[in-house]
Design brief:
With about 200 residues, the protein is of the alpha+beta class. It has two domains: about 5-60; about 65-195, 2-Layer Sandwich (Pseudouridine synthase). Helices cover about 20% and strands about 35% of the residues. The protein has five helices and twelve strands. Strands 1, 2, 3, 4, 7, 10, 11 and 12 form an eight-stranded mixed β-sheet that branches. Strands 5-6 form a two-stranded antiparallel sheet. The chain has a two-stranded antiparallel ribbon with strand order 8-9. The two termini are about 20 Å apart.
Length: about 200
């Protein structure tokens, strides 16, 4: 049995599990799994463990990650990303670098976060997105996360778009983080346009 790890740059549109299936087929391995999960719309680093190396997953998944995301202010989507249905729009006030950078800095530190309804977390044996697609709402427990650093990379006031980079603990949902940024800037929740996972995971 082939064992080891391959680093894949996941393309936009693929699910993390789709990438695993492709790797298994191309490399002809029976057992494989990904470390962490990237949303279908996200691109970036997705480590795949194969064979006996899959036993290392419980150790590697604990590592911190860095994401870069561009978000659109003023549009509320039911899924929290660009593929969802627009449920609300709102005016976006004037954006300046000092204000936006200040909001991002204020959000650093330990905190609790409620995962989005459209996620793969299981409650009562079903994934949250399955409940959402059925029009059902379930109570989602908050989880402890930590934002180590968040900095502004680019600001486009004309398009009401913000590009930022965040280093965070495992289990952090960027879509929810985008919603919180929008609220602090006095507008509706944002939908995520692009997210790049630059996982800092090292095999010793």
């Amino acid at each position: 049995m082939k064992s080891g790890m391959v680093i894949i740059h996941k393309e936009k549109g693929d699910t993390s599990q789709t990438v695993v299936s492709k790797v298994k087929k191309i490399l002809n391995v029976k057992k494989a799994g990904h470390i962490g999960t990237l949303d279908p719309l996200a691109t970036g680093v997705l480590p795949i463990l194969m064979g006996e190396a899959t036993k290392l997953s419980k150790y590697l998944i604990e590592h911190d990650k860095t994401y870069r995301a561009t978000i659109q202010l003023g549009i509320q989507k039911d899924t929290g990303d660009e593929e969802g249905n627009t449920v609300k729009t709102a005016e976006v006030g004037f954006l300046d670098e000092k204000t936006v950078a200040g909001v991002l800095k204020e959000m650093q530190g330990k905190q609790t976060q409620i995962p989005p309804q459209y996620s793969a977390i299981k409650i009562g044996g079903k994934k949250l997105y399955e409940y959402a697609r059925e029009g059902k709402t379930v109570e989602i427990p908050a989880r402890n996360i930590e934002i180590y650093e968040m900095k502004l990379m680019e600001l486009n006031p004309e398009k009401s778009q913000i590009c930022f980079e965040v280093s965070c603990s495992k289990g952090t949902y960027i879509r929810t983080l985008c919603e919180d940024i929008a609220k602090r800037l006095g507008t509706v929740r944002i939908h995520e346009v692009f997210a790049k996972n630059e996982s800092r995971q090292v095999l010793n």
